[in-house]
Design goal:
5 strands, about 140 residues, about 55% helix, single chain, alpha/beta, two-stranded antiparallel ribbon
């Protein structure tokens, strides 16, 4: 074998090993983390004194996915997500990924005009928002 053929064979072997170990979805990635780290801290929003373990993240995301499904979120749904920097953001992200929905993150500092544009442009059919944002929107 030439050096080039050896290199190509090595690369093919490494790629096959890599692809064999890649999780099939974000849900599978978290399931592996739960098995490996369970009660270890997955999310630490220290400025808010909020922590979530891998097991809690998995549980919360599963329950939220069930609730979102009940409200009509399905594979391909475009869902706007409007949160401050809170633990509910990554929980919602994973819940939507489990459903195969498209998450459209929206900045809480957007003006009403900017929000309207994003909602229309991204063809958002549902919105998940934090209470503090909803309270400000009513003003």
């Amino acid at each position: 074998m030439t050096m080039l053929e050896n290199s190509a064979a090595w690369r093919a072997e490494r790629e096959a090993a890599f692809h064999a170990d890649v999780p099939s979805s974000l849900g599978e990635l978290l399931a592996r983390a739960v098995r490996k780290h369970g009660d270890g801290v997955a999310i630490d929003l220290f400025e808010r004194d909020t922590r979530l373990t891998f097991a809690e993240w998995d549980d919360w995301a599963g329950r939220l996915a069930d609730g979102l499904r009940h409200y009509g979120v399905t594979k391909g749904s475009h869902v706007g997500v409007l949160f401050e920097n809170v633990v509910e953001f990554p929980v919602t992200w994973l819940a939507l990924a489990r459903l195969g929905a498209v998450m459209v993150p929206m900045n809480p500092r957007y003006t009403p005009t900017e929000l309207a544009y994003v909602i229309g442009d991204a063809r958002i059919s549902q919105l998940v928002a934090g209470r503090s944002r909803l309270a400000r929107s009513k003003r």
